[in-house]
Amino acid sequence: MRRPDHQTQTDVTAGAVLAPYLRSQAADFLRSLRLHRENSAPTDAGPQAAEQAAGALRRSSRRISGTLHTFRTALDPLWAEQLRTELAWLSGTLAREHAYAERLNRLLDALHGLSGTPLPSARAESAGGSAAKERAGLGVGAARAGALLERQLTLARTRAHSAALQALGSSRFHAVADAVALLASEVPLAPSAAAPAAELLGEPADRAEQRLLGAVAALSSDETAEPYNEAQDAPWHQTRLLLRLHRYAHEVVRGAPDPVLAGPGHALDLHRDASEAAAAAASAARTPRIAPATAYALGVLHADQRHEVGAARAVFRETWPYAAAVTAR
């Protein structure tokens, strides 16, 4: 059912728009938490179902947290800030295990694609071509690089999994779950929430949109971009977060996501993934006493992921619906 649109129904109060959205997200949170607990037992379907439930838990946490941040003037300020902070902690803690697993898969797939089927050493030497020797060397180094990345990222994932389990069993998490359970039935609105939605929700939603447009306009252009300058990644990561906040605000005031932002959002997700994968490859290359072939393969992998960073930026520019904002500089 479509929720009221504050831009067309001026007689609808801010509370009448905001409260149902927050209650719906709180219900999704509690449903995902129940599914996660039910599927955490060691069964054939358990791990995959638990991972899906954890993903849903993160999504509802982000939406509640983002909504509390954008529309805090319509809510009890102290309650909103406390719950927003705790939900940000929870979603960040739960996201790390998934991120390490996805990063490892991405890097191993990229290594396989870069090395292909390695030439046998004898054949590589008889070929005499530098390309054949390079491919053979990359094949040997890629296998060792893959093993190194698997050790490092699997260890990081294991630690993140332990941290997530510890968080879900902590008194801090139980306090968060209790707060969300109360939110599912009662939203602590401020007295100002009785004002028209167009007035009280429209302004913060517009501010969220303007912050996003300003961030996009400030992004480096193709001409000035340095593909191997990781310092340039930060504005893109910030744009991704601002796009997320704008999307959530649009869901609140319009009742549905803005479909034209799906493509740019996906491109920014790919940008984040490639940037973090490149950083992981660079970190692995700094491991003491690794073989030259391993270091070489990790260097090629780092370059490949930085190329993917540039490709994601190009896709973002192509799919961004307000082209003028991308090139303004």
TrEMBL record:
Q: Where is the composition biased (Low complexity)?
A: 45-56
An example Pfam family from this entry, by short name, is: CHAD
SMART domains, per this entry?
CHAD (SM00880)
Residue ranges of domain CHAD in the record: 11-325
Give me the ranges of the annotated region Disordered. 39-61
Write down the InterPro entries for this protein, in alphabetical order: CHAD_dom, CHAD_dom_sf
Q: What's this protein's name?
A: CHAD domain-containing protein
